[in-house]
């Protein structure tokens, strides 16, 4: 009887091994606003917040309850960061602690992510049902506080991603990892790959697949800083305290000094003029942080792993803003060009450059998907077929 059981168990193990054999593990790096954040509030200090939520961990993002009238003022106090003149950094307001919802190193792929809005379940099901991936075992994800963009916050992310990759590698019989990123996750991943040495990457990384990657920053971030995000949900005063914006404005290395991105009566701004722009806008603290953080994007080296840049195109996308006011309090009009609806085509030059700069032993593929949107790419069937070819060829 015991023998039979042993035989049965080893058969199961063999079977489990064989289905995961030769399959790169997947780690997904989500984009902006796609991680869940929790918060603990001391309501003695944060007096605009109801006593009923004192000192308990509650969902901060995305928590629809906080958009209700009795929480709205509280929400605006606690979602912002506060500039510390001494450390010259943004920090949590007093009486506030934040954390990521889960430690995704031990949990299901979708946990900790705001997946509903980007069709990430379809992406997951493709690998679970078509290719027998095991949720949380060889298909995983990593969340992060998307509001942050300092060297410190990015280094902390890199540390966690490195641990997740190494653990996933070990628990899947040394199968290499394919990093699949969406949008901002692309820059998070590129920054990560830049910090790892070649030996480590050779050992652990199968490939990097960047979907809708805004590797050179995004023009539409200019509009959020001027008008807020889905205003009045997240007003500009909150966004101007997120150091995220200090490293997400279009990178001058790609967008250049000639192309005008913002017109105002007295001054036109290229990607080289964002320090002035932030000051004119009244975001003086963010301007200070910008001086440090914008260097992060401009100093990226090629990823030096097999790299696939996939993005949507041929959809009307902001390429320039025209303000009637020098301080951006007036009317703002938008000029449109080609892109994925959020990122314009220029962004693809970051990948194009690697054709010259990356070690030629690594594969580089750049492919656009006409009429596929920034978010729609994730669950696009042509895209999933491309990924299948990369992973299972
Ligand atoms: C909240 O802040 C008040 C005032 O600083 C402090 O006395 C109290 O101990 C804090 N509460 C908690 C649970 O930390
Ligand atoms: C501001 O930063 C300084 C230096 O890091 C620190 O000592 C101080 O406690 C911070 N101030 C606040 C209000 O957090
Ligand atoms: C996640 O894990 C870290 C380190 O193990 C721990 O410090 C942190 O409290 C955990 N977070 C949650 C939400 O459980
Ligand atoms: C950011 O941190 C990395 C790794 O610690 C370091 O190599 C780099 O010089 C830092 N960059 C800036 C702009 O501070
Ligand atoms: C800004 O650019 C527009 C369009 O090219 C041009 O007509 C205008 O004169 C420029 N304004 C300034 C202040 O340079
Ligand atoms: C993209 O749009 C342009 C004009 O708007 C058109 O000429 C071109 O054929 C389109 N490209 C594709 C691949 O559909
Ligand atoms: C990249 O963008 C440029 C315009 O900036 C466009 O001409 C080119 O076709 C794009 N590349 C791909 C692969 O779509
Ligand atoms: C890289 O450059 C070569 C030669 O100029 C070209 O044939 C190839 O299509 C380019 N590859 C990509 C991914 O742009």
UniProtKB/TrEMBL annotation:
<keyword id="KW-0732">Signal</keyword>
<protein>
    <submittedName>
        <fullName>Uncharacterized protein</fullName>
    </submittedName>
</protein>
<dbReference type="Pfam" id="PF02450">
    <property type="entry name" value="LCAT"/>
</dbReference>
<feature type="signal peptide">
    <location>
        <begin position="1"/>
        <end position="22"/>
    </location>
</feature>
<dbReference type="GO" id="GO:0006629">
    <property type="term" value="P:lipid metabolic process"/>
</dbReference>
<dbReference type="GO" id="GO:0008374">
    <property type="term" value="F:O-acyltransferase activity"/>
</dbReference>
<dbReference type="InterPro" id="IPR029058">
    <property type="entry name" value="AB_hydrolase_fold"/>
</dbReference>
<dbReference type="InterPro" id="IPR003386">
    <property type="entry name" value="LACT/PDAT_acylTrfase"/>
</dbReference>
């Amino acid at each position: 009887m015991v023998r039979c059981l042993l035989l049965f168990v080893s058969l199961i193990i063999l079977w489990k091994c064989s289905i995961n054999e030769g399959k790169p593990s997947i780690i997904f790096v989500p984009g902006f606003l796609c991680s869940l954040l929790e918060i603990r509030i001391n309501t003695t200090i944060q007096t605009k917040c109801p006593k009923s939520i004192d000192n308990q961990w509650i969902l901060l993002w995305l928590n629809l309850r906080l958009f209700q009238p009795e929480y709205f003022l509280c929400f605006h106090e606690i979602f912002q960061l506060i500039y510390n003149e001494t450390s010259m950094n943004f920090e949590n307001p007093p009486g506030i602690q934040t954390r990521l919802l889960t430690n995704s190193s031990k949990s299901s792929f979708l946990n900790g992510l705001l997946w509903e809005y980007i069709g990430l379940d379809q992406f997951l099901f493709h690998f679970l049902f078509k290719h027998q991936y095991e949720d949380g075992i060889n298909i995983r994800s990593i969340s992060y506080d998307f509001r942050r963009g300092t060297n410190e916050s990015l280094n902390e992310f890199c540390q966690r991603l490195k641990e997740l990759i190494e653990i996933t590698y070990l628990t899947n019989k040394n199968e290499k990892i394919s990093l699949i990123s969406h949008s901002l996750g692309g820059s998070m991943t590129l920054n990560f790959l830049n910090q790892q040495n070649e030996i480590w990457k050779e050992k652990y990384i199968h490939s990097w697949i960047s979907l809708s990657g805004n590797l050179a920053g995004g023009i539409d971030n200019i509009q959020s800083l001027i008008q807020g995000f889905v205003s009045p949900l997240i007003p500009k005063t909150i966004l101007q305290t997120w150091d995220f914006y200090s490293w997400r404005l279009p990178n001058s290395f790609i967008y250049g000094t000639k192309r005008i991105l913002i017109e105002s009566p007295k001054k036109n701004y290229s990607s080289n003029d964002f320090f002035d722009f932030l000051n004119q806008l009244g975001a003086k603290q963010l301007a200070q942080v910008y001086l440090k953080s914008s260097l992060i994007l401009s100093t990226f080296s090629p990823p030096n792993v097999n790299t696939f840049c996939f993005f949507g195109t041929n959809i009307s996308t902001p390429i320039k803003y025209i303000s009637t006011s020098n301080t951006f309090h007036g009317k703002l009009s938008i000029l449109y060009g080609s892109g994925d609806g959020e990122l314009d085509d220029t962004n693809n030059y970051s990948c194009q450059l690697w054709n010259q700069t990356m070690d030629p032993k690594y594969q580089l593929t750049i492919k656009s998907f006409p009429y596929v949107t920034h978010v729609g790419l994730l669950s696009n069937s042509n895209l999933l077929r491309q990924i299948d070819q990369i992973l299972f060829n």
